[in-house]
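Support case: magnesium ion complex. Customer-provided input:
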Amino acid sequence: MAMPLVNVIRGERIEPAPFNVRTPYLKVPLWLVLFVWLGKGLLRLTVVLVRHWVVTGPLLGLAALYVRFDWYGPVVLVLVLSAVAGSWWQLDRATFLRFGFYPLLGRWRRWRYRRQWLPSMVTAGLGVSFNGHTVIPEIKRVRSSGTADVLTVRMVTGQIPDDFAKVSERLTHTFGARACRVSAGSRPDLIVVTLLRGDPLAETVAPFPVPPVPDFRALELARREDGDVYALRLFGTQVLVVGATDAGKGSVIWSLLRALAAGIRSGLVQVWAFDPKGGMELASGMPLFARFACEDFRAMADMLEEAVATMRERTARLRGRTRQHTPSVGDPLIVIVIDELAALTAYLTDRQLKDRIKAALGVLLTQGRAVGVHVVACLQDPRKEVLPFRDLFPTRIGLRLTEEAHVDLTLGEGARDRGALCDRIPRSAPGVAYVVLDGDPTPMRVRFSYLTDDDITDLAYDYARLRPVDRGGAAA
Ligand SMILES: Nc1ncnc2c1ncn2[C@@H]1O[C@H](COP(=O)(O)OP(=O)(O)OP(=O)(O)O)[C@@H](O)[C@H]1O
Ligand SMILES: [Mg+2]
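Agent response - structure generated as follows:
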């Protein structure tokens, strides 16, 4: 006996295709056939009218007005509605979009998705055969905004969000979107599929205002794809920025320095800058740095060892008193910024210097964060031969990368499958990157703010650090 489907499997049940059976031959008068057809047609029409009441309701209303008042009725109504919508749009665009336009757009898009849903789910491999029936996920809700459609979908029993994440690229092309992101829903059986249409990151992002006191738990560096601001938590972490040449690593560093600028001026933050590519990137920010080295690798090794010594001194002082250092003017947060890390760890020919640098970096990366010594390093090539310390950086930022395989090396196993398409970022979009947000397995696409040369000169001038007591350094 066939098992009843209800309560056994969750999902939208698709009726099997009808099959042809030879029916017995009956003689029926023509008038009866026409009568039955007419009845069926009327019934179907009623069902369609009721089901699509959003469209049919207003149309019937307009028709009724026409019957009652001739052309004046519908024309006056349309004019009045247009005037109300126009004034609402003029007076308060945000509420007009949120409560007026977007809900309507959502309904329209929902209708479009429902029409394509069955073949899309089956061809993407998300349809399930059960007990001789096809069962597919159900669209529960569609919300639209100017740039994205957010679909709340109920999965078929046995499916997990990763099943959708794996076919997100298929869904992108099927629904003609620019990108598709999958994330967990509010209940275990729901997921949220976000189909992105426009690109809020197409334009260069202007620098953010400098906060009067930097919040080390949320430094605003980039614009997120969903319109929010991406804030980096620097406390308790080390940051690795990976990107091919011209991917925009410089804009990550400058966005960070800008967010820290007020702290640099007040002495709450000290930036030690390493620019092994001859100072091309960072030299213009010299007044912001407590230490700066650009050509002399021996000076760089000395600086790193000095950082280790500072770190050890702090550790000894704070031991038993606190587990997390709090920055103060007397005991500032030290941010070690390295523009091309591989120049120090891989491409340096002097073996002895290289070993000194590696040893110091290893210690800083493993023990520095609790005592307020942070490393922010940029790198072009994330392979292990180039950077043996990759795994010691808890926070990673993946800009444009040249190879697919580099994505998982940078952002972690499975990141590319979950949507971090760093290798597909076009050359024409420097500063665009994928980051992994706290507690969300789906990587977020962001674009870092871009500081022009003039912005950098102004920043260095406005926020040059105060040096009441300058004890010098490699090249302070
Ligand atoms: N966030 C951004 N928004 C817009 N344009 C950017 C952004 N970042 C960088 N650019 C542009 O891209 C160019 C290359 O950027 P950048 O020098 O930062 O790359 P890079 O990753 O440091 O490259 P390299 O490894 O060669 O140093 C810049 O000259 C700038 O014009
Ligand atoms: Mg650079």
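The chain is about 40% helix and 20% strand.

Case will auto-close in a few days if no follow-up is received.
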